[in-house]
Amino acid sequence: MLNSVPLRLVLASQSPARRKLLQAAGIEPDVLVSGVDESQVVSDRAEELCLELARLKAQAVLSRLRATPDERTLVLGCDSVLAFDGEILGKPADAADATRRWERMRGRSGVLHTGHCLIDVTHEARAEAVASTTVHFADISDEEIAAYVATGEPLAVAGAFTIDGLGGPFLTGIEGDPGTVVGLSLPLLRNLLGELDLSIADLWTKVAPGGQEIEHLD
């Protein structure tokens, strides 16, 4: 059902890709960076690791917010890791690490897991889940790896690749939601909102991408 109280979504992430994904879907989030030290969490299961990190990010931002009677506030924390060849890969340590990863990944496949933790600050409720998408990597050359790593992009993202940036040409296909690879699954977000008795339409802003008006139903 559509919510009668104004909704505020706070994205607990500094990722511009996650913010752009929400904006393209008609959602304008506030952004507060969690500052969570990701190295503090250790797990040998990718799904558990990304979900725990998503929880920590959401909780860190939650601690800086206060519920108000005239607004319903939601906090969304997300974290992504790549499960590849029996290992869990977050962001590369440096350029050499990113190069080694791509030398192993090329021509093969991995599973990108993104944990989502959505907290309703106003009602003290929570919904969380993990989205998983299989990624197939192209058999790229040493020269292409060197050129890609030199851009710096692989150093800033989980798994050392993007689907929506310079890394897109180096993927041959995916099985699952592309948003999971970007770092935020919109279909999963819709489901989590439903668990909190909210609709994705409750988060739409007045003007959608392209400038058309969004009319809320009564």
Automatic annotation (TrEMBL):
The family database entries (InterPro entries) matched by this protein are listed as: ITPase-like_fam, Maf-like
Describe its function. Answer: Nucleoside triphosphate pyrophosphatase. May have a dual role in cell division arrest and in preventing the incorporation of modified nucleotides into cellular nucleic acids.
Active site annotation, chain numbering? D79 (proton acceptor)
First-tier enzyme category under EC: hydrolase
Could you tell me what this protein is called?
Nucleoside triphosphate pyrophosphatase
The reply on keyword Nucleus is no
Q: Where is this gene product found?
A: Cytoplasm
GO MF annotations, alphabetized: nucleoside triphosphate diphosphatase activity
EC assignment: 3.6.1.9
**Keyword Nucleotide-binding on this protein?**
no
Q: Which cofactor does it need?
A: a divalent metal cation
Mind listing the UniProt keywords for this protein, alphabetically? Cytoplasm, Hydrolase, Nucleotide metabolism
Query: Which reactions are catalysed by this chain?
Result: a ribonucleoside 5'-triphosphate + H2O = a ribonucleoside 5'-phosphate + diphosphate + H(+); a 2'-deoxyribonucleoside 5'-triphosphate + H2O = a 2'-deoxyribonucleoside 5'-phosphate + diphosphate + H(+)
Q: Which GO terms describe its cellular component?
A: cytoplasm
Instruction: Please state which protein family the record places this protein in.
Output: Belongs to the Maf family.
Gene Ontology biological process terms in this record: nucleotide metabolic process
Source organism of the structure = Micromonospora globispora
Annotated CDD domains: Maf
